[in-house]
Amino acid sequence: MDGGELPQLTIRILPPEVSVLIAAGEVVERPASVVKELIENSLDAGASQVSIEVRQGGLSLIRVTDNGKGIPSGDLALAVHRYATSKVTLAQDLARITTLGFRGEALPSIAAVADVEMLSRPADAVAATYLRLLDGNPVEQGTRGAPVGTTVTVLHLFAKQPARRKFMRSPSAENQQIASLVSQYALAYPEARFSLRLEGRQGLLTSGSGKLADAVVSVYGAEVAAAMLPMRWPLDGERTTMKVSGMAGPPHISRASRGYVSLFVNRRWVQNRRLIFAVEEAYSGLLTTGRHPIAIVDLRLPHEEVDVNVHPTKAEVRFRQEKEAFATVQRAVRQALLEQAPVPSLPSAAGAAVAQPTAPEETPPLWQRALEAEGQSKTAAGTAAPPPKVSLPMLRVVGQIGNTYIVAEGPEGIYLIDQHAAHERVLFEEIRAARQRRALDAQGLLEPAIVEVSPQQKEIILAYYEALSDHGFQLEPFGERTYLVRAIPAVLTGTDLSRAFAEFVDTLSEEAAPDQQDRVAFSLACHAAVRAGQSLTLEEMRELIRRLEQAEVPHTCPHGRPTMIHMSTALLEKEFRRR
Ligand code: ADP
Ligand code: MG
Which of 376, 421, 537, 553 has the fewest Cβ atoms surrounding its Cβ within 10 A? Predict the structure, then answer.
């Protein structure tokens, strides 16, 4: 066999115990996911009290008790079946989901990766029904005295999934995730009384008074709560189907991380980068670089305007009118800020940043600062402490110019991004990181490609043989100056190999990186990156920018050219003589 033939495999439908494990992998990523699903069930059941108890970061015990409407005894066993739900009956219901749950996947998924005990009593029952599951199978059922409501106890999470367990961080890190998650629900549902006990200690306790301000006191403390500015949108007379309420923190209580923007869409806690960016945008000019707001944003719109059936964890949503949702959130936050904290009265630190823009010639350009951060360039003064990492703000793609440059807007103005240089940077860092983790993807070729090389190229290949194979090239000598290529790095998939390979080898010797491994990564990035002159869709540009935001040194390409030019809001205002 010459690699061309593949063994014939039979297609089979997976047995339920396997398919449920696959679903569980998505729904139950970590202990906090279990807590999330159980809280959502409690809230869907109309609970006004939800108590959560966690031991060993959730790996030994998670228990959620509520006073909701309970599960009828005859339904208890059904509730842990895959796709068993009381919340959706018809396909058209999916277009109008009003509950937090609807997939009927949570309880069976949890039961697949943990031992579960359920205890539930509806209001009209005299006692509670009890059900114990081991490996997803009921092993014990009975009746017990208990108050109205439901208690779900999850024991020994991931005990039989050593791979998952290995990915868990310390109990205290998992507890932090859980605390932050419960805080989100406490802010979304101020009318419910939440109690969180972590390792026996009271973590969070809310009053359930129904007032957002009270929930904010429990989560962020009295001082923050007192400073928060209430939000209300639309203003009188505006006609819109989208409403925003919540609270925006004034600029002087900003935070160093982005994790303090809580977003709820129709009472569902969501993580949506674009909406978070909309909130941050509303603060543009009010916060100094690197500072992020505290905000609680509750967006309500007709249920049919938003699709929540995007991902098993239900934390993503899609809007029918995304732009309008974005603009509404931004206006609502901005309005609250301007109405109640007019710009001139801002504390001097934030005010100064707005009032005295740094003249462009006083500071070296961004890419130069980034180069210094990476240690590739020396400046006159640059001998003492290394400059801090220059990170990229969240950018919103506006469009493409000359099929070469991406125009983006960020909190501090306009960014012009060279698509090839940016993509090179992104790929280079991704390739290097994957290589260090020994997780570089190779693409096996069904038909090995035969490439002819020049003597010089042959020398280069011999010199770089190890680095090439570390990056996914599987090369076999095939005669004097011919190689069989059996596999290539996955990033090169789809390129015309017979031509690209020779070119690739040539560039290797020209790369300036000090070591062979990095030179291969440089060349790979350069070959796989989009070219100038290639038209990109908005989606592709956003994806590129999103990955660039993750890069360690986003402002230069691996060769040290800038990936972007920045025109600050201050500069624009100065040039247009707005002040
Ligand atoms: P979903 O929430 O998507 O319907 P789940 O697997 O989370 O799926 O739950 C299955 C069903 O079990 C729910 O539809 C609901 O009828 C019932 N249930 C689960 N938890 C509770 C609870 N705490 N109180 C009342 N009913 C519950
Ligand atoms: Mg559910």
Answer: 537
